[in-house]
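Ticket reopened. Same input as before:
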Amino acid sequence: MRRFKILEYALASLLRRPVKTAAILVVYTLMIVVLATVLLLTHALKTEAVNLLADGPELVVQRTMAGRHELVPVAAAQTVAAIPGVSAATPRVWGYYYDSLTGANYTLLGVDAAEPSLELLAGRLPQGDGECAIGAGVAAVRKVAVNDDLILIDANNIGAIFTVTGIFRAESRLLTEDLLVMPMAPLRRFFGMPAELATDLAVSVRNPSEVDTVANKVKRALPDSRPITRKELLRTYHAVFDWRGGMLLALFASALLAFCIMAWDKATGLSAGERREIGILKAVGWDTADVLLLKAWEGLAVSLLAFLLGFALAFGLVFWWGAPLLGVVLRGWSVLFPELRPTPYVDLYQVATLAFLTIVPYVASTVIPAWRAATTDPDEVMRQ
Amino acid sequence: MRRFIFALLLCLPGVAALAATPPQPGAKDRCAVCGMFVAPFPQWTAVLALKDGRLFYFDGPKDLFIGVLDTANQLPGVSPEQIAGVYVTEYYGTRLLPATEVIFVTGSDVRGPMGQELVPVLGREAAETFRRDHAGKKLMRFDGRQLVEITGQP
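Engineering reply: fixed in the latest deploy. New output:
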């Protein structure tokens, strides 16, 4: 009961200094928003990448010549498929297209009739020549709808007309935003790619423990090839997003430093009014423990309020409003930005880290000076 | 002759039941020998099917054989005569196959959930490839009652 009385007193004393409390709250909340946004967004992007790659092939085989990516012979698929443990090796045709009209880059992908991973489609997949399906980003930037025509310039610098048969509506638009899909044969003609060559090979391996062995064997059977396992891709994505998140955090380290200075300022210098208050409380019979409890309640109340406010704001920014400012930096540098709608997810470990790094120092910096004032003689404290 | 065919027809449902590959383990199924959950290791699952329809799951061929070769101690209430089928997950294809159809490679660098494993590989050629790739030692065969080493060149 006494504890709640002290809590009540702490809240009342915060409200007695509304301007000071509000100033601390605003700065504190802002800092939490920035830090939590970076953490949440980095985590969300990493999760998205993992989800995307989960459906991808276990192994991608590229061919290199003079250290550059080269087209791989379709016949190499048979060599790879003969390796024990490989259940399928499919040649893929895909590439990039720069649209000078809009200044955007599209990804063009050739599909055979049955493509399991591209099911989230409004309309239907392209079947014959002169048909294509496009991502929502392409549709928006070129202002086309289903059954409209889309004109692209092919390898011979001649305009090719494609009828849009469908628009992708993937839940995670990271994958299909800039995508343009058409059957393999017309795409080869569009790119001017010979029929016996493909962009790379998608290899599926049934047993995950065998993927590395298969990659080694591919390297031995096709010395000019470069096998990339899904694990390596994931690691690269993690490294990239971690690096970008780290860069941002480094930039905002100054903000953190400013906050620390503010906390330090509070810690070293208790205002004369506050010292007198502590002195009076001691004089009317409060214990040192009671004073410390009072200060701890004050610090906790401010910290928790700022933390909850800041974290809720960051959560909304990342998962509802698509991280308007920081998202651009973290996602990458591209013209056709996928609209970011990551699946809301909060990592408790991150919350705990953030809370520990902000709440504990703040509460400590409010309690320690109070403890120093409270242990001196009240008469002396009030006289100063 | 007709009686023989009739007898054969009578046997057919039984044969079909024996030949059917057992279902994959559920999330709650545990290894009958070591007690670990089986579902997280689909590429290692091994199954012992009894004639009365009961199924015992194992998290690898090693634990399967510990159980099958020593039913008296490891699987109380199961006698060798009750065994209808023994299945292991083939390494390259990750499909359940009868243990008598595959070759087991010992001493390889491929670790299962319980460490060193007898890795089941289908076909002599694939088994030799696996032995070469993963520094395997011996090739073994399961003859229905015990593991026998395969010696000699293919």
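The interface with chain B takes residues 84-85, 87, 206-210, 213, 217 of chain A (CB under 8 Å). The first strand of chain A starts at residue 59 and ends at 65. Please confirm and we'll close it.
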